[in-house]
Amino acid sequence: MNTSSLVEENIGAEHSLPLLQETSKETSNETSNETSNETSKEKSLSNNTGNEEMFDDMFLPNLDNLITEDDEPVDNVFSAKQQRFLVETLYNNVSLWNPDSVPFLADANVGIFISPTEPPLVPDAFLSLHIKMPEDFDYKKIRSYIVWIFAKTPDIVVEIVSNRKGGEMKRKMEEYAKLHIPYYAVYDPFDVFHGERLQIYTLNGIGYKPLRDFWMEDIGLGLRLWEGEYEGMPSEWLRWCDIQGNVLLSGKELTEKAESRAESAESRANLLAERLRALGVNPDTV
After folding, report:
1. How many helices and strands (H and E) does the chain possess?
2. Do 275 and 156 belong to one domain?
3. 268: domain range?
4. Which of 112, 154, 208, 231 has the highest CB neighbour count under 10 A?
5. Rounded to two decimals, what is the model's pTM?
6. Could you tell me whether strands 145-146 and 112-113 are parallel, antiparallel, or unpaired per DSSP bridges?
7. Could you give the CA distance from residue 88 to residue 81 in angstroms, rounded to a whole number?
8. Assign residue 71 a region: left if phi > 0, alpha if psi is -120 to 50, beta otherwise?
């Protein structure tokens, strides 16, 4: 994803969305000597036995100043559709790729904050496993993937290349490696780099090395390219798949598959009924 739209002019196009928004203070001659300070009390996450206790017990810092959205559009229509495609198919096929029902969070174009003092990384899509949140989790307040709240980084991030300014093959790769994210995938649908359109990397020490296969054992998923139509747009798409290479289906594809099965079942029933009638048997009495 091209993140230059998320950049403040005084930082430069090679940096991500700034983390903290400057707060304004009203001053006057009468109150110039008055100041207010907020104090916070920290609790260690290591004292919690699980994520649910963590959310109940931990002190959450003031998140009001985190810029979690800037109202800027994504790069292009294709990238937006591709992001939805990746996220939708994970949630539509949980029983296929996640038979143990491991709690997870998948999303697209959402900032990953690693600390209150650093700008976020904004992958085109990500998947984080073993995330368990209480039922009353406040999504309106926690609107980004905040690592010190979720207590882990994502297991895979996906970048869709739009141009050479995104830094997918250098800057972002190094930043994700520093976060120890196990898998990193780069999809180049517009052939910007004139090479392999899909490259998958696995963490090796402090850096990434190419994964020579489409299958990512640690998350139980694969990635592959697929030619077809999504949301009315025929194109080549990046899709999740199982170990045999079968793609995870979209909601529309699942509906069409169910309708096809129903039609086939009805056809078989009608054929059987005709054969029974030919034998002089009323199928309605069988």
Report:
1. 6, 11
2. no
3. 250-286
4. 154
5. 0.69
6. parallel
7. 10
8. left
Query: What's CA 33's distance to the chain center, in Å?
Result: 48
CA distance 51 to 61: 17
pLDDT band for position 164 (cuts 50, 70, 90): confident
CB atoms within 10 A of CB 199: 21
- Which CATH number goes with the domain that contains 155? 3.90.1570
Same domain? 177 vs 255: no
Residues 259 and 241 in one domain: no
Closest by CA to 6, choosing from 90, 97, 67, is 67
Task: State the pLDDT at residue 260.
Answer: 72
Separation of alpha carbons 146 and 261, rounded Å? 43
If phi over 0 gives left and psi between -120 and 50 gives alpha, with beta otherwise, what is residue 231? left
* Residue carrying structure tokens 């529309």: 252
End-to-end CA distance of the chain: 61
